[in-house]
Amino acid sequence: MMKTLRARPWLAALATSTLLLALPAQAAEPSAESVDKLLVVTKSQALVEQMYGHMETAMRAGMQQALGGRRLTDRQQALVERAPAEFAAVMRQELSWEKIKPIQAGIYRETFTQEEINGLIAFYESPLGRSFIDKMPVVMQRSNQLMQALTAPMMDKMRAAMERAVAEAQAPS
Prior knowledge:
Layout: H1 2-7, H2 9-22, H3 32-41, H4 44-67, H5 74-94, H6 97-111, H7 114-125, H8 127-170
Helix pairs in contact: 3-6, 3-7, 4-5, 4-8, 7-8
């Protein structure tokens, strides 16, 4: 092999350039500090906190829709009003930022190179990037509202299908 490479300099150059081109694929994993900085500049913790509120609101709307305007006793109404807050409290505990952050940081370190993390930080620190981050909660809230509107009829159809299936299963054969 060495004799072949010496006899054909173009082959040696090709082998060397192939190795050099492969080097970027082996780019260094981003540092924990840079990933932490990216999570800070993207206001990731605040987005997680906002998610809790959106989930509680969505649950309240879903429960009201499921009730379909039925009259409830005072006790039932109190339970219906308390359930979303209890759900949100469990979610805040089980999906706390302290639990989510290491997972998120690990995904970023596995997915991006140091150069990409640096570029993302530069973007999110720019005026355009800050504007994107500041407007993202509005985009997410509006998306959730529209998705609820799209899924409400589907949920009604699914509930009706389930009720039919249960009725058919309970009917004598």
